[in-house]
Fold 3-oxoacyl-ACP synthase III.
Amino acid sequence: MTGAHSGGCRVDQRTAARPSRPTPRGAAAGSGPVPTIFGSHLHHTTSSRRHDSLTSNSSIRHRNSSLLSVTRVEAEEVVPSSWFDDQLADTYRRLRMPRGLLERLAGIRERRGWAEGSSFDDGAARAGRAALEQAGVAPEQIGLLINGSVTRDNFEPAVAVGIHHALGLPRHALNFDMTNACLGFVNGITVASSMIDAGAIDYALIVCGEDPSPWHETALRMLNRPDSTRDEVLTQFATLTLGSGAAAAVIGRADRHPEGHRILGSVSRAGTEHKDLCIGGDAGQGMATDATGLLTHGLKLVTDAWEEAHREGWDWTDMDAYVTHQISTSHTNAIVDAVGIDRDRIPLTFPYWGNVAAAALPMTLALQAETLEPGQRVLCMGVGSGLNTGLMEIAW
């Protein structure tokens, strides 16, 4: 039962009123690079997992797990960053702030929004249906459904149950949400791969759908108050970089699918002392982000995980593609400089999709998959508020 449950009634998380909006502790007010959004990573003991007192990483090597398909659904409506400039014109004028901040600082020209009659969970179901078809796997073969989205209309039931019903999945299929900020989808693949390694299931479907539009509305309402400040504009900046979309992937047994893309393993690392840097409440409460703190500590967390992983035997210096969580130009440049990877091998989708939260990485992977060739190596680099990071290698 959730803390928001009352007498078995439906509680709408996106509109429920709260006493006050969240404030990131220790926020560096008034300045800093583009705000970011981050999440976490789980592990399962049935795969080959290394952890001892001398390491801070959780390192898992999967034995029999393959990615059979990955799909994306782009939300139908285009929302240019100039639209937010128009909505905030009076506030920018009063605070003497220039138009074009979202595009100039974040590199985001536009993002997507769901059309009337569409929704994030409908998008997740559409992506899931396409992933099953692409993989050649029937709904009745699925033993596990994980929804990794941040977005939800209610605290309960799980978003996964509606998707399970929409896809006609069997009653024996486990189904639940794995909510972990922008790392939920990567977490889901790790858990599913571990269950496949253990022989508990043969196939898993991971889905994710996002819709930040209610949070956009809250941010605009806050910033258009006559007493809003420059610091509040910067605190709400990350909210306006978010976009809508959906993704899905089918994971299956490698020994039954030689055509699949082997999920070799993953490394995760926690930095939960930074849990207050990005706090997202329900839509009425909004989200508050410490941009400088997230970029600084998030980058260090990824770098520490990367360096220790290399000492443990992982070699990611010459991958064919680095599929990162899509945040901003500043974040991408910082990652390139910190770990010394080839910028040309990083596909960028945030300029036209924005930051699609937990769907950002798999949507980008689905796009990149159109040009990947057998034998190439891919590193998925996820990070989410909390802070947590997850790095996952796939052999295409």
